[in-house]
Structures are given as structure tokens and as C-alpha cells.
Specification:
Elements (H helix, E strand, L loop, with lengths): L1 H25 L6 E5 L19 H8 L14 H10 L3 H4 L16 H7 L3 E6 L15 E4 L10 E4 L2 E4 L4 H14 L6 E6 L37 H5 L15 H4 L9
Parallel strand pairs: 1-6, 2-3, 2-6
Antiparallel strand pairs: 3-4, 4-5
Length: 266
């Protein structure tokens, strides 16, 4: 009975979305959608969230003109599962994406870009897909610009609508420019754009113009930095970044792990 109820809820959700898409198609003026996604950004690593030295003026501007959710949570804190949840509106155990790069949800599963496209929207995806380790165009998008896996910050290999090529420049700048080019296209349809950045995911490679942005910033050592993982779930101690660093005496200092350009102090 429980499974039946879940199926009925899922069907009801899809029907509601389809009805919504139909009502949008009938409207004279339909809204456009732009979904920015920043990878691995801490909830407090923004100046609008009170960070002592991080500068995020454009994010702050969006926050000041909208709503900033300060009590939000994820059900699985991994990259690919989160992306699948965003697109499908379902939990990881439903869409099947439970790990990074090795899994992708079935293309028959409804996504919000696909529903908007069916309702007459022009849809685009620009950025990091990170599911099934592919860069080729995925269903539901009229325009596609992506890369395999994590990609590279400098002179990355990109895939535009199925054509692979090496680009020249910094990944964030390139993705932003492709997104802007899409937005500036003459069109009669409303649009939906996913701009999903690689940044600020490690390895931390800033653009040259930002290499000294925080050189004088004081970066205190987090309280949990020397955690021994005692009493924590087993998967945490098995992670490569944790291996060899469980002993406080052998764990490197924060300064040893930082790029020289940061010039941070304990």
C-alpha cells in the first residue's frame, strides 16, 4: 500500500506539473527561468551571509532583491545526486543517482526543463552535468554546453551541442559568456537556462586577476579541522582525504594545505 501511495503521489505530481506547463503556455506573458548553481559553496561563504572577508557582490545583489533561505538542507550531500534531485524533483532513491559520475537518471523521467520545453519554452544547459561522466547533450535542452566530469579551470575541453573542442580561457568566464550569448539571442519564446558552474569546487585555481584577492585575509583553523573521526560514521574515516590524518599529531597544519597565494595565517 505504501508503494502504491508513493506511485500515486508521483503521478499526481507529474500531472500537476503538466497542468502548470499548459497554463503557462496559455498565458500572454510567461516568466523566464535562470537557475544558477555554484559547486561546493559553503552556506556562509558569501558576504551577504556575514562572511568576514569573502566578497560576493553579484550574489549579494541577487540576495537583496530576492529571498535567502537560511534553514535549508540536502538529503544527500554529493554533487551528482543533488543535481538529479534539482532536475527531477525526486529523492535519490527514486531517481537512482546515488553516487558521483557513475549514475544518471532514466531519460524517461520527467524533468522541469523537459516539461517547460514541452510547454513551448526554449531550454538551455550551460555548465557542469557530472552524471555518468559524459559531456554529450542530454534530453530536454535545445542548447547544450558542458564537459566531462569535473573539467578543467584553465583552457577546458567543452562540448557544444555534440561538438567537442578545446576552449581558451578560464572556465567560469567561458561558461558565463556562453550563458550570456544564449540570453541575448533574439527569440519569441520564453526561456529556461541552467547555468551550473564548476567553481568553486577544488582544486582551488582562481583566475589570474583574482590570485591575490585574499592574500592578506586571516583564515582561522576550523574547530573540526583536527577531528580524529572518533565516533563518526565509518565512511568518513575511509575517505582518501581523511586517511592518514586521523591522528592530530600527524595531521598537517592548515597553512601547509593552502595555496601560497592565499598567504593565510593560523
Amino acid at each position: 500500500m505504501h508503494r502504491t501511495c508513493l506511485k500515486e503521489i508521483a503521478v499526481f505530481t507529474v500531472v500537476v506539473l503538466l497542468c502548470l506547463a499548459g497554463s503557462l503556455a496559455a498565458a500572454d506573458r510567461r516568466p523566464n527561468f535562470v537557475f544558477f548553481l555554484i559547486d561546493d559553496l559553503r552556506f556562509d561563504a558569501m558576504s551577504c551571509a556575514g562572511h568576514p572577508f569573502v566578497k560576493t557582490p553579484n550574489v549579494d545583489r541577487i540576495a537583496s532583491a530576492g529571498v535567502r533561505c537560511t534553514n535549508a538542507f540536502v538529503t544527500i550531500s554529493l554533487c551528482a545526486p543533488s543535481r538529479a534531485c534539482f532536475l527531477t524533483g525526486t529523492y535519490a532513491h527514486t531517481n537512482g543517482v546515488r553516487t558521483n559520475e557513475q549514475m544518471e537518471f532514466e531519460h524517461s523521467m520527467p524533468t522541469y526543463p523537459g516539461l517547460l520545453r514541452a510547454a513551448g519554452y526554449e531550454t538551455a544547459f550551460v555548465g557542469k552535468w557530472h552524471m555518468k561522466n559524459v559531456a554529450d547533450p542530454r534530453p530536454g535542452f535545445d542548447y547544450w554546453l558542458s564537459f566531462v566530469g569535473q573539467g578543467d579551470y584553465i583552457n577546458p575541453k567543452l562540448n557544444e551541442n555534440g561538438r567537442g573542442f578545446h576552449a581558451t580561457g578560464y572556465m567560469t568566464d567561458l561558461l558565463t559568456q556562453y550563458a550570456v550569448d544564449f540570453l541575448k539571442k533574439p527569440r519569441e519564446k520564453p526561456f529556461s537556462l541552467c547555468l551550473w558552474h564548476k567553481a568553486v569546487h577544488g582544486p582551488f585555481t582562481p583566475a589570474d586577476r583574482h590570485s591575490d584577492l585574499y592574500k592578506d585575509a586571516l583564515l582561522p583553523e576550523p574547530v573540526s579541522f583536527r577531528d580524529t573521526f572518533e565516533g563518526k560514521p565509518a565512511w568518513q574515516s575511509r575517505r582518501p582525504r581523511a586517511a592518514g590524518n586521523r591522528n592530530q599529531a600527524t595531521r598537517p597544519s592548515l597553512a601547509d594545505l593552502q595555496p601560497p597565494a592565499w598567504n593565510a595565517r593560523d
